[in-house]
Amino acid sequence: MFELLGPVRDLLAGQQQQQQQQQQQQQHQSADRPYPLRIDNVSFRLHTQLSFALLACCAALVSAKQFFGEPIVCINHSGLETESVNIYCWIYGTFTVKRHLRGITGRQVAAPGVAQASDGDEIYQHKYYQWVCLVLLLQGLAYYVSGALWRAWEAGLMCRLSNELAGSGRVSSAPGPDDSVWTEEVKSRVCAYFAEARLSRAHELYALRFASCELLNFLLTLGQFCLLDKFLEGRFASYGLDALSFLLSQPEASSLRQRYQPSSRVDPMARLFPKLAKCTLHTFGSTGSSQVHDALCVLSLNVVNEKVFVFVWFWMVFLFVVGSFALIYRVVVLTQRWARILLLRASTRGSLPKSLAHRLTVGSSYGEWFVLRRLSMNVSLAVYRRLLLDLAEHYEADHRTHKHIS
């Protein structure tokens, strides 16, 4: 039996050794790159990485019981069990009264929106209170999925190309302006790859997928902003500006009398995220008659919710602006050849002649230009410049061949 297992053990050992050699080779090649591998741009990372991290931190913050205690604690004088009242008001939600939002706290109202309510009073329900953490987490996951989708579509293309080129970029002992070893073998492999990718239009699909993910990020920001506005009863659209305007317009109370002066403005944070709210319970007495019980509930998480959503508002506006510029940039480079020529020269820090950049741009598709731009961020300048020179020569030779045949 052990004799039969011997070849299997040897095969597994050989495969493990081969995998270790491949990993060491990839690490060695990756070490030749001047920067960490980049398969996207700053706008994309702001959406898919930083937004996910920030929203996940916000979700963790609003659910941190050790900092803010229980999410809801209700006070009642009806003899009902406190825990039962807390659970009831947590499930069915709390409310505030609209006409009491402008009262003087401590004299006219217990808190903004908390005072005696009449039958005809307009009230604001706050049933979204228990869903804040989940909504923030789902928003962050939506941005993460967008980044994961691009990584799946990218499929390691930039890593393979940059490793191939980085392997050719080791410094030679012979001095020279571009003293990197660029063998004919590497040149033929790279040019053959670009020729094959041109026939299969693989780079066109690569660039189209990235543009699709950029559009998805923009639509996610716009859609999530609208969903948050719906989630928060139509008050999120102007929440950030309203909160900032209210805070800047509030004078500091230098005396107790000024502190209790009535204000004509409603605090948008207290309106949307009250720290104190009312809760009404209906029970039946011993004779079967309906009894109404009022409870005053402390919503401790709203201390941080009001600030978190101010930050989320400004962050989403910032993402919307960044995403808009990213889409405008993408349309310009897709439709305007002069922009691609300018950016191709900029990727070589101006060392590429304008005529050569024009020849490369005219001879290549947008997808090939896009891949070349990504490569400029992942290989050394000397290797990248040599790649462009050889590709321009290859495109020129192909053009002469096709012209001669026709």
Provide structural commentary.
With 406 residues, the chain is mostly helical. The chain has a domain at 37-154 and 216-251 and 260-324. The protein has 16 helices and 5 strands. The chain has helices at residues 2-31, 42-62, 65-68, 82-92, 132-154, 157-167, 184-200, 202-231, 239-249, 256-259, 268-272, 302-335, 337-346, 354-363, 366-375, 381-405; strands spanning 73-75, 95-97, 123-125, 276-284, 290-298. α1 (2-31) packs across α6, α2 runs antiparallel to α12 (302-335) and α12 (302-335) crosses α13 (337-346). It is elongated, with a radius of gyration of 32 Å.
Which features characterize this protein?
mainly alpha, elongated, 406 residues, two-stranded antiparallel ribbon, 5 strands, single chain
Q: How helical, in percent, are the residues?
A: 55-70%
- The average pLDDT score comes to 80
Strand order, main sheet: write it out. Answer: 1-5-4
How many runs of DSSP E, i.e. beta strands? 5
- Spans of at least 5 consecutive residues whose pLDDT stays below 50 are 1-9, 25-32, 169-180, 253-260
Q: Termini distance?
A: 69 Å
Q: Note the beta-strand portion.
A: 5-15%
Sheet with the most strands? 3 strands, antiparallel
The structural class is: mainly alpha
Indicate the multimeric state.
single chain
Question: What is Rg?
Answer: 32 Å
Spell the H/E element sequence: HHHEHEEHHHHHHHEEHHHHH
Summarize the helices and strands and which ones pair or pack.
Elements (H helix, E strand, L loop, with lengths): L1 H30 L10 H21 L2 H4 L4 E3 L6 H11 L2 E3 L25 E3 L6 H23 L2 H11 L16 H17 L1 H30 L7 H11 L6 H4 L8 H5 L3 E9 L5 E9 L3 H34 L1 H10 L7 H10 L2 H10 L5 H25 L1
Helix pairs in contact: 1-6, 2-5, 2-12, 5-8, 8-12, 8-15, 12-13, 13-14, 14-16
